[in-house]
Amino acid sequence: MLEIDIARKSYPDRGGQPHLALEALRMRVRPGEFACVVGPSGCGKSTLLNLVGGLDADFQGRIALDGQPPAGGVGFMFQEPRLMPWLTVLDNVRLVLGDDPGGPERARQLLAAMELGDVLDAFPGRLSGGMQRRVALARAFVIEPRLLLMDEPFVSLDAPTADRLRTMLVEIWRERQTTVLFVTHDLREALALGDRVFFLSGAPARVVLELPVRLDRPRSPANPAVQALQQAVLERHPELLAGLANAADDAIEETELEQP
Amino acid sequence: MTVKAQYEPRMSAQPHQRASTQAPASESPPARRDALTRFASLLVFVLVWHVAALAVESSTLPPPLTVFERIVAETVSLALPEHLATTLSRVVISFGAAMLIGTAIGIAMGHWRRLDLFLDGWLVLGLNIPALVTIILCYVWFGLNDAAAIIAVAINKIPTVVVTVREGARAIDPRLMQVASAYRLSRWRTFTRVYLPQLQPYLMAAARSGLSLIWKIVLVVELLGRSNGIGFQLNVFFQFFDITGILAYTLVFAAIVLLVEALVLRPLERRVTRWRG
After folding, report:
1. Which residues of chain B have a Cβ shorter than 8 Å from any chain A Cβ?
2. Structural contact between residues B121 and B176, judged by C-beta atoms closer than 8 angstroms
3. Residues near B161 by Cβ (< 8 Å), separated by ≥ 6?
4. Membrane-crossing residues (chain B) (predicted)?
């Protein structure tokens, strides 16, 4: 169980004034669950992931994975692939491995499963954006993470490439039952991927709506059921995606929409 | 006549084309041609020297052959190898010390603004103080010994290493460092696999410019306060007006510099920049 209770998180903005990014944000993600977080841009989604991933420890509140602060065993996929350009594909994946004796073999298998078996010794600069993201995905899974954090990892890809990567992600995730926290500003992507979608308000961000998604998998963003669900959500909460949701409303709503 | 003139270029163009189409078949023609160019440049240098020496006909400009004979004689008597070894060991030690200390300070200054502000004035002083002053002061304060000589050389070099490495430390990509901390890489692994590779071009530049500076300063240090090494020997030759000796030692020294460049620095650079392909 991933428990996130953030009382306050602020950071100095460009002018040096404190900017309140997150306030009274509470989330519960069950083990093995694929949770998506959507919210207007600039609402603090990336800040939230950085806190959960331990990249930023300066906040008031508590984040626990199975009752303890998440230390190790957390995979992280950023908006950009962020591979080390001086390491080969294989070495990039092996970089994050500890002394685990099975690691190197797992790295090869994962890369092969992602159809990167032919470019193990290539440098990332030679690869397309989609391939680089597949390497980043392999890097995230090679440590067999208990928790996988993803920060809009498929943004700026063309639609077919993004679709293919989503399919790969869901396949590996189902095999390994990793808990995933996936941040996106694209509601359809969230509905296509998630078991549960958290809607954040504009800054200071908090959860304004929690929506379980029970559609059958696999589902792509172009899937009619996904599109219908998106329509239903938008009709019922038209203000949500505009980031105008009322942050003063104390009760977090759990929506149950009719789902096929 | 005009017809013939028009014909000629075409005639000469044909063998040219054939040569260029043949080129890919041989092993690695561009590399081979490059080596040939380098060799030709060396040859022209020696030739010009030879002609000039014949024209001047003075003991102040001995011809190349005389100098080569002197190199052989000095090598056989073991005088040259001994002095050369002494100088090289001073170069290696002071170079290593300057790179290590300069890199550490440069990284620190690149990361902590307060320290950067504090040390910046010292750095400007260090960059601008004449080498001769630090050499004299080191000999006066630490005595006429090898330690003083090496300290003097290192002090001359450290500021330029600091400036270059500081630039590199400022250019470190925080996004890649985040990857290292997100995956909880150990400090050592983060430093060697994520941090240093980003610093590498700056380290390489510092090493290059550092080596060329140190070669020169070491000789001055030896001339002023040591009783062995190439610098000392050059001074002896100068007192006897032995230009052949001076040129013989200079040539060997220059050859060593070229060898280090060709056998150590360039292959090293090629290896570490392989990924830029």
Report:
1. 175-176, 178-179, 181-185, 189, 193-194, 197, 200, 272, 274-277
2. no
3. B98, B99, B101, B102, B103, B106, B206, B210
4. 35-56, 91-110, 122-142, 236-265
Rank A16-25, A66-75, B15-24, B97-106 by mean pLDDT and report only the highest: B97-106
ipTM of the complex: 0.87
Give dist(CA A223, CA A90) in Å, integer.
35
Between B18 and B104, whose confidence is greater? B104
**For B64-276, CATH number?**
1.10.3720.10
In this structure, what token pair is assigned to residue B197? 């590779």
Q: What is the CATH number of domain A2-73+146-254?
A: 3.40.50.300
Q: Which of B224, B206, B238 is nearest to B130 (CA)?
A: B224
Per the structure block, which two tokens stand in for A199?
A: 């809607």
- Residue range B56-81, pLDDT digits in tens: 888 889 999 999 999 999 999 999 99
Nearest CA in chain B to A72: B184
What is the crossing angle of helices A129-142 and A159-176, to 10°? 10
Q: Please check whether residue B217 is in contact with residue B209, taking contact to mean a CB–CB distance below 8 angstroms.
A: no
CA dist., res. A244 & res. A238, Å (int): 9
| Beta pairing partners, A151 | A183
The average confidence (pLDDT) of chain A is 86
Question: Who wins on pLDDT, A248 or A113?
Answer: A113
What is the rounded distance in angstroms from the CA atom of residue A71 to the CA atom of residue A68? 8
Q: Is A126 part of the contact surface with chain B (CB cutoff 8 Å)?
A: yes
Place of tokens 């000095």: B74
- Record the pTM: 0.80
**Domain extents in chain A:** 2-73+146-254, 83-144
**Nearest alpha carbon to residue A186 among A173, A174, A199:** A199
> Which residues of chain B make contact with A95, given a CB cutoff of 8 A?
183, 185, 189, 193-194
Tokens (6 digits) for B162: 């600091």
Q: Cα–Cα distance between A174 and A33 in angstroms, integer?
A: 10
For residues A49-65, average pLDDT: 91
